[in-house]
């Protein structure tokens, strides 16, 4: 039997609220944090308000709060993050998934439709969210995820196992030395932030998330420039590329990819906030 603390859940939440308020956090978030940390519903919490909290649970929650007010992202503290309604393993070796990236999945579904089979490549896979979600939506597809970071690939492998999908993982520097083959769909959310933007970024992002997954040389365009040289050899004639980008990079990136793919249609597409967020390279002959 678990040892109980001297605090009821109501008292523990009141203490947590006071702690958060004293550290300039929204005191009302204590209840939501407890629900998220322990994966319980608000209804379950309401029923348990007068019950005494387990000592281990209380100690763990207090540690989460201390790390949170110190600036550490909650996802890294808990070792998990949500993306498109699914839970993924995360740690300091890979970026925390952002909801904007779900737009790549939606655009991929627009392109693939109800196709039974396809060859799909995710470059810079990180936690593996794009490769894994595409494999879940298209179980007969042959999906490959690549990353320069071996540590990030280990996170991706863990997530593949967690979601019971068979994805091929390949460690390498973009498409350098990648086996010669072609794909129906290539997706990527590469590093695209210029180093000059550090001054306006959240401090906790700079402190905790991996630099190599955030920043690129040449004002954030260095990875795109390399991809522009590499992608044509790996894309099928009727294939498609979908890239995530910074909201101010659309015009320059569109020109860069048009030069690399002179016979294809290059589009800048907005996210749900009506900001330029994706570049789509469509099949030959659509220009």
TrEMBL record:
Residues 11-79 form the Release factor glutamine methyltransferase N-terminal domain. InterPro entries: DNA_methylase_N6_adenine_CS, HemK-like, N5-glutamine_MTase, PrmC_N, RF_methyltr_PrmC, SAM-dependent_MTases_sf, Small_mtfrase_dom. GO terms for molecular function: nucleic acid binding; peptide chain release factor N(5)-glutamine methyltransferase activity. One of its GO terms (biological process) is methylation. Transmembrane segments: none annotated. Keywords: Methyltransferase, S-adenosyl-L-methionine, Transferase. S-adenosyl-L-methionine binds at residues 124-128, 147, 189. CDD domains: AdoMet_MTases. Gene3D superfamilies: DNA helicase RuvA subunit, C-terminal domain, Vaccinia Virus protein VP39. It holds the Pfam family PrmC_N. SUPFAM superfamilies: S-adenosyl-L-methionine-dependent methyltransferases (SSF53335). It is an enzyme of class 2 (transferase). Methylates the class 1 translation termination release factors RF1/PrfA and RF2/PrfB on the glutamine residue of the universally conserved GGQ motif. Belongs to the protein N5-glutamine methyltransferase family. PrmC subfamily. This is Release factor glutamine methyltransferase. It comes from Suicoccus acidiformans. The gene is prmC.
């Amino acid at each position: 039997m678990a040892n109980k603390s001297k605090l009821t859940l109501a008292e523990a939440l009141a203490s947590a609220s006071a702690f958060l308020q004293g550290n300039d956090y929204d005191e009302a978030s204590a209840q939501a944090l407890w629900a998220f940390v322990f994966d319980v519903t608000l209804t379950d919490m309401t029923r348990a308000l007068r019950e005494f909290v387990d000592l281990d649970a209380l100690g763990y929650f207090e540690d989460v709060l201390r790390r949170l007010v110190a600036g550490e992202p909650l996802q890294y503290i808990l070792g998990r993050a949500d993306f498109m309604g699914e839970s993924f393993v995360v740690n300091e070796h890979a970026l925390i998934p952002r909801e904007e990236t779900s737009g790549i999945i939606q655009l991929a579904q627009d392109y693939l439709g109800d196709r039974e089979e396809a060859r799909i490549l995710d470059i810079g896979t990180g936690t593996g969210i794009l490769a894994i979600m595409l494999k879940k939506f298209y179980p007969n597809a042959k999906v490959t995820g690549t990353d320069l970071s071996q540590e990030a690939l280990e996170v991706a492998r863990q997530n593949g196992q967690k979601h019971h999908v068979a994805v091929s993982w390949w460690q390498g520097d973009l498409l350098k030395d990648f086996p010669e083959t072609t794909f129906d769909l290539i997706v990527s959310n590469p590093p695209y932030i210029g180093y000059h933007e550090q001054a306006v970024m959240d401090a906790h992002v700079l402190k905790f998330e991996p630099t190599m997954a955030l920043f690129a040389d040449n004002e954030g365009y260095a990875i795109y420039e390399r991809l522009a040289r590499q992608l044509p050899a790996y894309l099928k004639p009727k294939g498609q590329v979908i890239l995530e980008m910074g909201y101010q990079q659309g015009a320059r990136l569109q020109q860069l990819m048009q030069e690399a793919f002179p016979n294809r249609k290059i589009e800048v597409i907005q996210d749900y906030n009506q900001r330029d967020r994706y570049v789509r390279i469509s099949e030959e002959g659509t220009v």
